[in-house]
Amino acid sequence: MGFVVGLVLGLIVGLALIVFFVRFENARSKKRTDLAAVVAAFARMTVEDSRKLLSPEYYPSWVVFSQRQKLAWLNVQLEKIWPFVNDAASELIKANVEPILEQYRPVILASLSFSKLTLGTVAPQFTGVSIIEDGKEGITMELEMQWDGNPSIILDIKTYLGVSLPVQVKNIGFTGVFRLIFRPLVAEFPCFGAVCFSLRQKKKLDFTLKVVGGDMSSIPGLSDAIESTIRDAVEDSITWPVRKIIPILPGDYSDLELKPVGTLEVKLVQAKELTNKDLIGKSDPYAVLYVRPLRDRMKKSKTINNQLNPIWNEHFEFIIEDASTQHLVVKIYDDEGIQASELIGCAQIQLSDLEPGKVKDVWLKLVKDLEIQRDNKNRGQVHLELLYVPSGKQNGFVNPFSQNYSMTSLEKVFKTGANTNGAIESDGPKKRDIIVRGVLSITIISAEDLPPADLMGKADPFVVLSLKKSGAKNKTRVVNDNLNPVWNQTFDFMVEDGLHDMLILEIWDHDTFGKDLMGRCILTLTRVLMEGEYKESLAVDGAKSGKLNVHLKWTHKPIFRDS
Fold first, then answer.
1. What DSSP state is assigned to residue 280?
2. What pLDDT is attached to residue 339?
3. With 80 as the cut, is the pLDDT of residue 265 above it?
4. DSSP secondary structure letters along 384-431
5. What Cα–Cα distance (Å) separates residue 364 from each residue in 268, 298, 521?
6. How far apart (Å, rounded) are the C-alpha atoms in residues 555 and 213?
7. Which pairing describes strands 406-407 and 461-467: parallel, antiparallel, or unpaired?
8. Which residues share a beta bridge with 466?
C-alpha cells in the first residue's frame, strides 16, 4: 500500500515539475520574443521617430542627429593619392589665397606672401557626405572634413622699416563642411557642365604663429594683425557664398558666379536686461552686426554708456548673395575703453525666415556662443526690425506721396535719378529727396493688470508719451487707485522724420511727493508708416505684469527738399 501511495505522489510531483518547467520555458520564450521585437523596432526607428519620442531638451548637448553617410572607403583611397593631391592643392591654394592676403594686408606691413606652402604628409579625413535636393537644375553634395595635419607654411613678411620676418603657421586644426555643386545637368558625358566648390561651414579653424628664429612679440600687435588677415582671407576666398567654378564642358556659366541677390535692411532698435560686465556701475554696450564676417562688411553701433537697457534706433544695410543659407549675426559687447571689449551675448537669425518685402519685428535671445545649442542663462534680448528686398522686386511698401512708386528701402526713401524700383523723375538737374513727415495720432486706450505700486496694493497710473528724436512730450491724466485704468485720450505729434524717430511710452505712478516709473513700451514708427493705422496691446517692459492698449494712426504730410 505504501508503495502505491509513493508511486502516485511521485507521479503527481513529477507531472507538476514538468508543467512548471514547460510554463517557465514558455514564459521565458515569450519574453525573449518580445525583447527581440523591441530590438527590431529600435533597429527600424528613424531619426524622426527618435525626435517624436523625446523632445530636444531631453538630449545631452553632445547628441547630434546627422544625415551624413560615412566615407571610410574614400579616406583609404585619399591616403594613397595624398602625395599627388598635396602638390596640386598647394599650388592652387597659393595662387588663389596670396592675392587676397595682399588685399587684407595690415597697414603696418609692406608685403605679405607665401615663401613656402605644402600641406604635409597627413591626409584629411572625410567624416560624412550628404546630398541636397536641387531640383532638376543640378546636384549638390556636402562633404564634412576634419584635418589635423602637419603642413609647412611660411609667410614672408616685410615691414616698412625694411625688416623681413619669416612667420611659420603651425598646429593647424580644421573642421568644416565643403559644398560641391554639379550644374547644369546635360545630356553629354559626364552629364554636368561645371563644378562649383566652396567651404559651406567653418566649424573650427585653429592655428599658431611663430617667427622662425625670432620672437613674434618684438612687433606689438603683429600676431593679431596677421591672424585676422589669414581669417579674412579664408572667409573671402572660399567660404560660402563665395564659390570657385571649374568648367567641365564648354559653355557660359556666369549664372553660377557670386552676385548680389538682394539687400537686407536692419534697424537695431534696442536691447533689454543685458548682463552687467562691470564691477562698478553698469556695462557700456554696443552692437556689431554682420552677414559675412569681413572687416569692411561688419557694422558697429554707437556705444550707450552705463546702461543695461540701451536704445540705439540705428539703421544698417547689408548685401545678400544667398538668402537661403546666409544669416544675420548680432553681437553685443561691453566697451572697456583701451582694453579689449567683453562679449555680453550674441544671436542670429536665418534670412530664410524672412518674407521678402515684409518687415519682421523680432526679439532675439542672447547666448554665449552660437554653436551651443542650449544656453539657459539670461544674457538679455535684442530688438530688431528686418526687411529683405530681393533685387528687382518691390516690397509692398507703398509710397504715400505717389502710388506709382514703391519703397524698396526703409532709409533710402525715393532718391531720384536712380531707376524705376524707387525713383521719382525730376524736371531739372537737381534731385528731390522725400522726407517722411507727418502727423502721428496715438490714442492711449487703457492698461491691464498693472503691478501694484502703493502700500495699499493699488497705483495711480498715468502715461508719458515722447518722441526720442524730436523730444516732443505729452502725458495722460492720472487715474487714481486703479490697476486697470482707462484713459481713451488721443494725442497728435508732428513728426519730422518718421523713419528715424521712435515713440516711448512710460507708465508712472503718481504720488503726492513724487512719481515712480512702473514700466515702458518702445515703438518704432515703421509699422504705422506701412499700414497707416493699427491697434495693438503692448507688453510693459520693466514690470512684472501689465499690458498697454494703444491705437496709432499716421497722416502723411510730405516735404520735398532739393539736394
1. S
2. 78
3. yes
4. EEEEEEETT---SEE-TT-TT-EE--SSS---TTS-TTT----SSSS-
5. 11, 19, 17
6. 72
7. unpaired
8. 473, 504
Instruction: Return the pLDDT at 426.
Output: 36
Helix (H/G/I), strand (E/B), else coil: 88: helix
Contact (Cβ atoms closer than 8 angstroms) between residue 395 and residue 357: yes
Peptide bond into 190 cis (omega under 30): yes
Give the separation between CA 342 and CA 335, rounded to whole angstroms.
7
Q: In the Cβ-directed half-sphere of 63, how many Cα atoms lie within 13 Å?
A: 11
In contact, 502 and 524? CB cutoff 8 Å: yes
Question: What is the DSSP pairing of strand 502-511 with strand 461-467?
Answer: antiparallel
Kindly state the cell numbers that stand for 270.
534696442
DSSP classification of residue 295: G
Distance of alpha carbon 138 from alpha carbon 180, whole angstroms: 10
What pLDDT is stored for residue 384 in this prediction?
92
> What is the DSSP code (8-state) at residue 452?
P
Strand bridging mode 438-448 / 461-467: unpaired
Cα–Cα dist 414/421, whole Å: 9
Q: Residue 394: its pLDDT value, please?
A: 52
Report the distance separating Cα 424 and Cα 432, nearest Å. Answer: 8
Phi-psi region of 119 (alpha: psi -120 to 50; beta: other; left: phi over 0): alpha
- The CA angle 198-200-205, to the nearest 5 degrees, is 100
387-413 per-position pLDDT tens digit: 888 887 654 444 333 334 334 344 343
- Which element (helix H / strand E) includes 278? none
Cα torsion 290, 296, 299, 303: sign: positive
Using an 8 Å Cβ cutoff, are 464 and 475 in contact? Answer: yes
Which letter, b or e, does each residue of 248-286 get, where b requires 16 or more Cβ atoms within 10 Å of its Cβ? beeeebeebeeeebbbbbbbbbbbbebbebeeeebbbbb
Distance CA 288, CA 286 (A): 7
Instruction: Report the distance separating Cα 542 and Cα 236, nearest Å.
Output: 43
Residues making up the chain, counted from first to last: 563
Asked whether the beta carbons of 351 and 320 are under 8 A apart, the reply is yes
Residue 17, pLDDT > 60, answer yes
How would residue 421 be classed by pLDDT, with cut points 50, 70 and 90? very low
